[in-house]
Amino acid sequence: MKKMFPRSIVTRLALWLLAAPLLLASCNKDTDAIKAAKAHEEEYRKIDDALIQAYFTRHNISSSNYQRTESGLYLVKLEDGAGELIKAGNKVQVKYIGSYLREENENVVFDKSYGNRTLCECTEVTVGQGQVIRGWEEALKLMKPGDKKQVFIPSYLAYGPYPGNSIPPDEPLQFYMEIKQVQ
């Protein structure tokens, strides 16, 4: 005796096969919201880079003293650590101070690990788990145990057009970061 699929399964499968090409075709097209988000990021790539360069000019930081990544993240080496670069999956203890970099609010601290009632006065992050902003994720992967760096994060690698707790939208940020321990 032959077993047959219930009619509802066959009908669903036929409908899905008919709809699949339409659904897949729409995946390749950017929606208006995606296009607007991309345009916004492109605009702020230029704005944020100019703000970071203005900070460097005010503080006499020359291009020989920093590393700029393709994404627009800047790292200024303060002290070299030792060992291998941090990679995804590592648990990292980071001592940090986060502040603004625009001239009008420069050095206003919005967050810090100092005084957070932990022995190391740091925060622990598992790299690659989305626990921190994209700029931190990228910066951590460019650091080693013991590194001390000043990291300049464009707004689109921070909170973008969405305000953080005390951070305005489209705000580039700077962090003093010290890698205390890597596991």
Provide structural commentary:
The longest helix has 27 residues, at 32-58. This protein is α+β, with helices and mostly antiparallel strands and 183 residues long. It has one domain: Roll (Chitinase A, domain 3). Strands 1, 2, 3, 4, 5, 6 and 7 form a 7-stranded antiparallel beta sheet that branches. Helices cover 30% and strands 23% of the residues. The mean pLDDT is 88. The chain contains 3 helices and 7 strands, in the order ααβββββαββ. It is an enzyme of class 5 (isomerase). One of its GO terms (molecular function) is isomerase activity. Residues 89-183 form the PPIase FKBP-type domain.
Offer a quick outline of the entry.
The chain is an alpha+beta fold.
List the helices and strands and how they pair.
Blueprint: H1 7-27, H2 32-58, E1 66-68, E2 74-79, E3 91-100, E4 109-112, E5 123-126, H3 134-140, E6 148-153, E7 173-182
Poorly predicted tracts of residues: none
What's the architecture, going by CATH? Roll
State the CATH class.
Alpha Beta
Radius of gyration: 23 Å
Q: Give the H and E element order.
A: HHEEEEEHEE
Quote the CATH topology.
Chitinase A, domain 3
The count of DSSP E runs of length 2 or more, i.e. the number of strands, is 7
Structural class: alpha+beta
Helix content: 25-40%
Domain PPIase FKBP-type: 89-183
EC number: 5.2.1.8
Signal peptide: 1-25
Catalytic activity: [protein]-peptidylproline (omega=180) = [protein]-peptidylproline (omega=0)
